[in-house]
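Quick one, C-alpha cells below:
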C-alpha cells in the first residue's frame, strides 16, 4: 500500500486533473555467475538509504539512459541496434542508447566491464588504479563511455547482453521508467565492486535465496527484481545451467503494473501472468 501523496496523485490522474509523468528509458543488467556447488548467483547491490528512489532496496546494476548514450559512437561487436530494437520493443536509436546505458551503468555501479580489444579477444579485466580513476571520471561526467573505450582502444561487447524483460512504472508514480532488463554472465577474471555513492553493499545471491529473504522481510526487492529472480529460481531449480537459461529464444512482453485506488488507499496490481512472488 502507498502513502497519501501517491493516493492523491492517482485520484487526480483518474479524475483528469493531472497528466501522468512521462516515463524515462532505463537499462538494467542482471549479472549472473555459476559457483561450483552453489548453483547460479545474481549480483545484487543494496541502494544507500539516502537515495531518492528505492532506498535500501536490493537491485541489479542499472539506471536511466543519459543524453550522451543516444549520441554514443564507437565500435560495437554483436547484434545490430535494429536487432536489439525488435527484441526490446524500441526503435534502433533507442535500442542503441539502451545498450550503451546498460554497459555504462554496469561499469559505473559494479566495476564490471563488457568490452574487449576486439570481438574475438577475451573480455578486458578493468583492474588497477587507472581503471578506478576512469570509472570515477565516468560517474562524475568528466568522461563518456565512448571516450573511455577510445582511450583504451576497446570495443563494446553487445553480444554479451541478452534482452530479458521490460517493465514500465505505473502511471500513478511521480518518477516513471520504461526499463529494459538484460542478462549477462560475469566475465572471467572480473570482480564486482560497488560504487559507494549509490550502494553500500554488494552481494552474490542465489535467486531463490533472495526471494525467500524478501518474503521473510530480511531484504527489500522491487516487483521487477523479485519477478526476474523468481523466474531465474524456477529455471535453476530444473537443473539448467547458465548456458541453458540464457541461450534459448525469449519473447519479451512489456509489463506495466497498475495502481488501484480503494477507499482512499492505493494498491499495486501486477498482471496475473507475471510471476511476482511477493
Amino acid at each position: 500500500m502507498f502513502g497519501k501523496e501517491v493516493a492523491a496523485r492517482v485520484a487526480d490522474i483518474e479524475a483528469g486533473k493531472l497528466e501522468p509523468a512521462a516515463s524515462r528509458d532505463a537499462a538494467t543488467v542482471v549479472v549472473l555467475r555459476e559457483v561450483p556447488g552453489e548453483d547460479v548467483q545474481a549480483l545484487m547491490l543494496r541502494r544507500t538509504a539516502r537515495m531518492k528512489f528505492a532506498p535500501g532496496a536490493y537491485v541489479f546494476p542499472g539506471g536511466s539512459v543519459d543524453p550522451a548514450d543516444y549520441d554514443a559512437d564507437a565500435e560495437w561487436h554483436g547484434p545490430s541496434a535494429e536487432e536489439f530494437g525488435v527484441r526490446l520493443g524500441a526503435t534502433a536509436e533507442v535500442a542503441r542508447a539502451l545498450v550503451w546505458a546498460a554497459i555504462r551503468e554496469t561499469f559505473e555501479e559494479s566495476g564490471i566491464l563488457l568490452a574487449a580489444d576486439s570481438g574475438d579477444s577475451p573480455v578486458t579485466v578493468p583492474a588497477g588504479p587507472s581503471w578506478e580513476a576512469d570509472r570515477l571520471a565516468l560517474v562524475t561526467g568528466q568522461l563518456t563511455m565512448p571516450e573511455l573505450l577510445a582511450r583504451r582502444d576497446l570495443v563494446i561487447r553487445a553480444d554479451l547482453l541478452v534482452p530479458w524483460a521490460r517493465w514500465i512504472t505505473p502511471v500513478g508514480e511521480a518518477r516513471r521508467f520504461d526499463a529494459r532488463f538484460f542478462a549477462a554472465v560475469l566475465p572471467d577474471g572480473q570482480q564486482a565492486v560497488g560504487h559507494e555513492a549509490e550502494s553500500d553493499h554488494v552481494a552474490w545471491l542465489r535467486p531463490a535465496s533472495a526471494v525467500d529473504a524478501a518474503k521473510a522481510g530480511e531484504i527489500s526487492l522491487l516487483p521487477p527484481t523479485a519477478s526476474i529472480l523468481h523466474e531465474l529460481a524456477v529455471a535453476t531449480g530444473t537443473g539448467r545451467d547458465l548456458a541453458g537459461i540464457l541461450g534459448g529464444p525469449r519473447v519479451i512482453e512489456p509489463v506495466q503494473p497498475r495502481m488501484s485506488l480503494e477507499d482512499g488507499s492505493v494498491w499495486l496490481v501486477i498482471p496475473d501472468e507475471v510471476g511476482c512472488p511477493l
